[in-house]
Design a protein that fits this description.
Length: 107
Amino acid sequence: NIQQRMLPWLIGQRANELFNFDYCAYSMRKSKESTGRIVMYREFGIRNSLTLEATFAGTSDNWASHKDSKIHRQFNQKDFMNIGKHTAEALWDYHVADIDMEKKSKM
């Protein structure tokens, strides 16, 4: 469902140096059936329950060019603050888009 992928896509647009939309997974594996997001989806129909995983080690895409070599850059406190900021901004974008769609459907 496109609506379920919209928020992660918006986060990826705002925080492309910290978040990679292409790495998002939308399957419900058997081993994850007792997780909060899947229980909320199945029991209450909450479709936009997401898990944002973070690590201090950085990502496989998180390479910064340094002269002729590449150095792996770890995430720092500023990165985590920025991903929180970008996630909040993406939530606002999602909300505004949802209101616009609601208005259009009432016309």
